[in-house]
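Open question from group meeting: does this chain pack into something compact, or does most of it stay loose? Before anyone orders reagents, we agreed to write out a predicted structure and look at it together. Recording both the input and the output here so the notebook holds the full record.
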Amino acid sequence: MPDYVRVKDKSTGAHYTVLAQAAENDPDAYTVLKQPAVNENGDPLPGEIPSENTGQTATTQKKGS
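Structure tokens returned:
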């Protein structure tokens, strides 16, 4: 099973799940967060984009999900 981590993209502020190796290979691009990266089934959690009005993040879902 792949090892996932939750990260914050330093350029956009978006939060999403990536493979741990990707985050380790590019530390200038990501800040690793202490949030869960996967759901109870081991599936990566959806991304979150920062809200322009509040500075907080909003969950993004694929259409049809």
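Observations to bring back to the group:
Strands lie at 4-9, 15-19, 30-32, 48-50, 57-59.
The two ends are 23 Å apart (CA to CA).
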